[in-house]
Amino acid sequence: MAAADPTAFRDDTPFIGPARAPLVTGGKSVRWITDRVTGLALRDTPWQWTAAFAVSLALTVMLLGNVAYLIFRGTGVWGNNVPVAWGWPIVNFVFWVGIGHAGTLISAILFLFRQNWRTGINRFAEAMTIFAVVCAGLFPAIHVGRIWVVYWLAPYPNQMAMWPQFRSPLLWDVFAVNTYFTVSLLFWYMGMIPDLATLRDRAKNKVAQFAYGIGAVGWTGSSRAWWRYEKAYMLLAALAAPLVLSVHTIVSFDFAVSQLAGWHTTIFPPYFVAGAVFSGFGMVLTLIIPAREWFGLKEIVTLRHLENMCKVIIVTGNMVGYAYAMEFFVAWYSGNAYEAYAFVNRALGPYWWSYWIMVSCNVITPFLFYSKKFRTTPWIIFVISIFVNIGMWFERFVITITSLHRSNVPSSWRYFSPTPVDFMMLIGSFGLFFTLFLLFCRYLPMVAIAEVKSVMPMPEHENLNAPGAHTGQDSINPPQTGDFRTEGAY
Amino acid sequence: MAHHAPVVDPAALREDIGDLAGKFRIPLLLVGVVGLVAAGLLASLSDDGWAKRFLFGYLWAYWFFLTISLGGLFFTMIQHVTRAGWSVTVRRLAEMLGANLWVFAPLSLPLLAGVLFDGAGVWEWADPVLVESGPTADLLQHKEPYLNKPFFLIRCAIYFAVWSFWGWKLYALSRKQDETGDPGLTQTMHNWSVAGLPLTFLTVTFAAIDFLMSLTPTWYSTIYGVVIIAGCAVSVHATLAVIVLLLRKRGTLTEAVTVEHQQDLGKLLFGFIVFWAYVSFSQFLLIWYADIPEETEYYLVRFSHGWTFVMAMLLTGHFIIPFLGLLSRHVKRRDSTLMFWCVWVLFMHAVDLYLFIMPRLTHDAVHAGIEDVGLPLSLVDLACFVGIGGFACATLLTTAAGVALVPHRDPRLKEALAFHNT
Asked: Which of A87, A103, A197, A270 has its Cβ near the most Cβ atoms within 10 Å?
């Protein structure tokens, strides 16, 4: 906490009654925001960044080395067996794709719902989304085994009459993830253009000017450019909103269209989407709490932002808990012996520990956020968000592994154990994620400068929540000096 | 969005429904009685046995009005939980729908009586003969710990207690704020909603399982509750828009509810139509794709005996056509077009519920060996609809009588009045 600055404590969401806490605290000026955000990208490289980047890059190299080893030796280097043919690669895929849901949810769905608190965190979350999807995409690509024919997944006419199996959700996944990645990337990049132009204009050295200049594609900031920008933003938001739902829906179809007990259940599509948003917000919190501390962004990413994200965690966590409960209830209610066995086996079978890790992290943990103290204390949020990440990885582990290892033919039942390569690839994928993420933090505008300015507390804005503001009188009250609590909804 | 709040006449915000309650309460109650008596008489002409045919029509009409009121409760709670500003001017109407939930407890009596009298109700599991030695006795016996009469009645008591209490509580607190103007009550309502929302979600889920899913007691679907709740959301936004438009036509609410709120109700209606399609189609696709006999029986009957037409009608009429129809901003902002689509969607919501319930009659007729079974359309259903609608509307008017149509001392009201779609 910046104790020297008494205004730093004003970013408290525990506001009284219906008044809304400001979205930028500390009485900062418009100029301060530009200076702070561009300063982070244009300063000299801090040694801490170099150190963190070196570690991440080393892990990425380890990942690539393992991929090379896998291609050279074949999929036997994994713990995958029959019947658990999907193993960790698919667990990791679903885990990373799930994390890649928060960014576009924040930028698209929260935009359509006019949740203007999103402006402080959307750039950050969108970047995280893109890098998470990159990590996700790697795993199914290497899991196909014969990676040199992975292009068969692409639907193009050819002389071999190799035509993809359009009836398989695995193929729909290729389309869904690619579309999502493309639109998220476009959305992220388009939103960044004005800020890249700011960086271009402020950069001192030629290389930076040239690079940011390319990225800014000739942005001048004219009102016509802004008008088109806002139109395009709205359209992309409307297009991206169904995509947020579609990706994890299709991922859930990968499991749920089968006849395997524990996979085939109708609640999977909304349940997977809720879980994805849950894990995505968990990861945003894990990343943003240290980031706002280290990069001095506490005035932009305020406790109100953190508390709102915690509330999203509560809601989506409860949805996931609801789905677990429905699955269990219906497993009994259905009277289907295989269904009932699959669920009892999850809770009490050889993988019982993974099931209970999942339930504790995903069902019990969100309830901690019902405490206002917990969801407004950054270090507690940080710890809980880690548990959310762990819980959601184990959820995919439970779904994938426990259902497969007791598949429909008892003679093929087999216990799955991961190999060192499995572990190294999971850890390495975090390396890849953080490598990309650190590059973003170092060179790109971490906060949507122009958007945050639009939600700053401004004296000319109306004071909608002041006492007596609902008398019907048209009043324009400047905020009382030093007290933003009575400031309006902006 | 920094628009200045318009100058609104404070008296206009305190308007209530005027003499509507006094004028229509008794006629509506009479309509209710006449409708239900007519339904009973018409049902006696049915081949299915009069009690059974009556109760099927009754169940359908009951759930139509129940889902709307539950939607009102959900709407109110969600506005509180999200601390919404835009919706203050329309929230009171949703509160009234929620506060009207108590009436569904007495209205459920015929259905509950059907459970108590062996073999007279709509539910197979409540018939001891079928549980003992019916064709699906194995499964019915397996489910007996859940699907049995005492536990069913206990659950019903819990559902009605939860819905009536929360509907009444949020309405009472909001009216108290009208009197005292205490902004702290906003936080109180928020807290009650935080507690009530998950509880309502769970109770509606299990009520949907008990009343509707258990009509086919051998069948199961984990998404069922979500599909029903999606229907609640669709129908309440359409209903709210219809009520707003009707009240504005009478000259009330004209200042408080602007075209912006109207458009937002339209947007949410549009969104929930898509959500309804998403969950309904997910359920269908997964069952169709996996093709497991226990599950496909639900859709098999819905793809035969004329139900295919109703399925196609829902796909087009509950999704594709209103999707295209409600897409444009102008449609949502113009009174006549929004009214058209809301009535359309409400009709489709009724068709949706019809498809949940009535194919069971077809199933029973087929199993009874009747040939040439067609759609079990009957005037009984229409009469039940009129009857339950009469009772529900009469009590709704009583609930609303003398109460301001806008929570005019809500501290966020000014935000709602100042709100503009960009």
From this structure: A103
